[in-house]
Amino acid sequence: MRIKVISPDIVTYGAMVIGGVLEQEGYDTSISRVIEDTDADILILSLYSTQHLLDTRIKKAIRFQKERGGRCYVGGPVSADPSMVLGELSPDAVVVGEGEITISRLVLEGPSPDIPGIAYMKEGEMIVTGSSPPSPMTRPLPLIPPDIGDQNIRGANVYIETHRGCVGGCGFCQVPRYFGQEVRSRSIEDILTEVRAFKDAGVHRISISGGTGSLFASQYGRMNVPAFIQLLQGIAGVMGPKNLSSPDIRVDCITDEVLDAIRDYTIGWVFFGIESGSEGILKKMRKGATVDQVREAVKRCRMHGLKVAGSFIVGYPGETADDYQMTKDLIEELALDDVFVSVAEPIPGTPLADLVLSIPQEENPVYVPHTGEYQALGLSEAEARAFDLMLHADLHKPRFTMTDDRTFNLYLEEVRKQGSDILRSTEVLLRYS
Ligand code: SF4
């Protein structure tokens, strides 16, 4: 049987793991980031964005597959709301949650009420067969596409998974809902075997994902610092420290030893999800960290010779002009080496999505027209704040950056895209609420 796994535009690590599981079971499996018609017996789409549910290329590939009598299954983070996936894309089934165990049975048996962790339509009714079993942390090698070395995700060819789950419960984030709040870690030996395989396949730069890197091997919410250091040391031994990043980290998950290890075994950057300078908004976001903890964490990173980047979310429902000003003030104060700005996106299955569904449109900054300084640009309030914050952050980086016309237009294009994508996602959410 021939199986094609497609992960649109970026081959995600999760898609490669599913490909590896199927290949190990003896199926003739291939993987690609190109969305195209296929002559495989089974098409598996690994989808990680709500935008994929509206993507005409994906709809066409599924239609083609079904018309020629092949089967099509969808999995990945979009499965948080299987009714949306079935309604928008009409695959034969959706793999809900972690798919490593479920996909094998689905491929072998086809959709059936006996397989836990799937959703499918039968005689006009949606059947959901409970939750998927958590996947074991030992697994076959991922199926690596031959062009992996050309892929670029925030500077890395691939983000590998060292553990699943996050002790945080941020209201906008899917990680604790998809993988749970208990951390399940892989063995260092397995991770290093995989890193060698990626290197052999042409990967130059690896990044560690998993919500918060330093939670690797943690138990009952307590960090296992020696294991994290050993992990970084091991991967750097294969790739070289200049080719490893361990970016995402919670401000309350650092120690001096963790920071020294990041400095010694990686490219030397830490990436904090700071989100807001307003305590009120951080509480609304369920961030579980305070602005003072952010200040302290940034200071400590600098003392350990690390560069610090921060991500911020604007346009969260309930964010007032004063809240937004506090975020601007914090950026000015911290003078971060890099800043990433996003408009709050209601990802299905998250508390933020529930919040967005519960408020009238006129209270959602994504729908409110901006009437201030950028009115002539025709932005929503959320887009205007994102645009303004990008410009503001450039002014307050340690290395002063002049915003020229090109950057101005890039930022404008970026916020318009974010705004329109989020409007489209919100419309889908509303349709299936
Ligand atoms: S700390 Fe990061 S991974 Fe964990 S819930 Fe918050 S945003 Fe998600």
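^ iron/sulfur cluster complex. The chain has two domains: 2-128, 148-431. The two ends are 38 Å apart (CA to CA).
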